[in-house]
Amino acid sequence: MIRYPFLREGTTIGVTAPSYGVAPDMHDLLKQAIGRMEEAGFAVSTGDTVWTQHKAKSAPARLRAEELNRMLQDDRIGLVLPPWGGELLIEVLEHLDFDRIGDKWLLGYSDISLLLLAVTLRTGLATAHGTNLLDLRGRVTDSTTAKWRDALTTPAGGSFGQHSSDLYQVEWKSRPEAEEANPAEAEAADDSVFNLTEPTVWKSVSGGDVGFNGRLLVGCIDVIRHLVGTPYGDVRTFRDTHLPGEPVLWVLENCEMNTADLRRSLVQMKLAGWFDNCAGLMFGRSPANGAVDGYTAVDVYRDMAEELGVPVLYDIDCGHMPPQLTLINGAMAQVEFSEEKGTASVRQIYK
């Protein structure tokens, strides 16, 4: 059984940095993002780690864990929302008190996806893979990203639907040196954060329409692969305890790996039993996936489809090329994909 939090209007959002913090030259953007949450009617409680960044982390692991533990155990906080991802969240896992985590949402992606997956696997608490705080600083949020509110306010037993985006981003908007001197003013002159310019086209390995159902598990392969063989990546026990007999639909994305590293990581996950009783795989668009000796990402996807005997979709709205769907670890997902249109619908059911 999966436990689903519910985000109440006007609740407090806890902002902490279990991975990267925000360097001083970006504090204005952080304040702007906090302001957007307050304009939306939320109270915001900001931890000390958010405002610092040194040597690939916001603060030492124990300090990051202490602040995160406080927010996860504080009944006044209904959502923990880090500013963004980073590199070394894995350092805090051994210091977290998983047994005392309250029924509240955690939302994020990239390095934060490691925390989300670990929490769901250890506790059966649903967590939300989607946007981060800094990406919500714009006056206008595209319709795909904006679904985070629907996802977090759907009650247990309910469902919500999403659709593949119309456009996606290849490059971030440039910020000339003069604008960087006053980032708050520069952002105020632009309604949106993302630079959505390219038509979105989801694809399938089979070359045909695809429909599948399964319990979602989601994450950035670069970081979640390091949970294999640890107490925080016990997928088998999670499935036996919380999803007995139910298939899992994995949604994965690659931030920095070439295709050989991607393939090695997926094979490791397969050998660890992560893909047992798998309903299918969905891979997000990636800024990486550099081919190795002609071995492309599509080759990797085809190999996985053949070995697992499951449908595989790719170039979906997930990961480091926004926008992205809000996908709930543990929720039942129903996916319908049209090859002719290159579009898909995703309905998530909180049961």
From TrEMBL:
Protein's UniProt keywords contain Signal: no
UniProt xrefs under Pfam families: Peptidase_S66, Peptidase_S66C
Domain LD-carboxypeptidase N-terminal: start-end pairs: 13-130
Gene Ontology molecular function: any one: carboxypeptidase activity
TM region(s), chain numbering: none
Domain of life from the UniProt record: Bacteria
Protein name (record): LD-carboxypeptidase
Origin species: Saccharibacillus brassicae
